[in-house]
């Protein structure tokens, strides 16, 4: 790939230093993804400029005007403190006719909205757990058409906010308690869905029109499962000491049923297309003991930290971290938003 001018978009509190040699691991952890991406692109010979974004787009507009980047590498996960607003930044890039990496605004908007995602998947006959939304500040009523055990989470927040082993409820009393907790903790509606007991699988997807799936990855919950298959709580995902104590790890899925990997890959591509996604994504699935599959979430622009699931899955397929980032850049350069239809 030729040398490019790359504008790296990060949250204003996560601008990585050029040199981390004087920092310890705890200092680095918060901006590890941003540093991994910055240093890798820089070492590949690209000219990389970092812009930190908070609740204004002034800095972004000025950086595009002054730096004239070939592409913006998008690592934002929120805008103005609101997770569901990150797609507005990408929409702004499109209005500026600025190529970018990752998912397009429409795909981000749909997939960030968990309820809308489930409605779209249902329209495409893609299986996901049956659900009901209990809006914030509305009177609680026990869902009539759902079977216990049920799983309760925020209808809008991500990164496992508000999720714990107590998120699985067995009766109406516990359900009311958990819904009230989610309402108070997240100030958002509560998404109540039937709990799917089974293997937790992740599959990365790369592409725009032509799609490639990465090897299927699996979460091993170790002893942190409370008698069930386990759930990906905040501690399970991010607490290294907790992971070590309970033997929690992720790795390539083994002993899948005959044809299971092909079915999973096909399903992941269907989800990607149904939600109008582009660039790269990660699909979170559950597989019951009988081999049936259910979509838990579709994640646009998933974690790109070196050594984490997406990068490790790519590595297992022979795609180094450098090649993965280069592929993501190339997909951004070749994506065709509407404004490119009017290029002369």
Report, as a whole number of angstroms, the end-to-end distance.
24 Å
- The stretches of 5 or more residues where confidence is low (pLDDT under 50) are none
What is the percent of helical residues? 25-40%
Broad shape: globular
- The CATH superfamily name of the largest domain is ATP-grasp fold, B domain
Structural class given helices, strands, pairing? alpha+beta
DSSP summary: helix tally: 12
Main CATH class of the largest domain: Alpha Beta
* Tally of individual domains: 3
H and E order: EHHEHEHHHEEEHEEEEHHEHEEHH
CATH domain fold name of the largest domain: D-amino Acid Aminotransferase, Chain A, domain 1
Mean pLDDT: 92
What is the CATH architecture descriptor of the largest domain?
Answer: 2-Layer Sandwich
Keywords:
Dna Ligase, domain 1; 344 residues; six-stranded antiparallel beta sheet; four-stranded antiparallel beta sheet; 3 domains; Rossmann fold; alpha+beta; D-amino Acid Aminotransferase, Chain A, domain 1
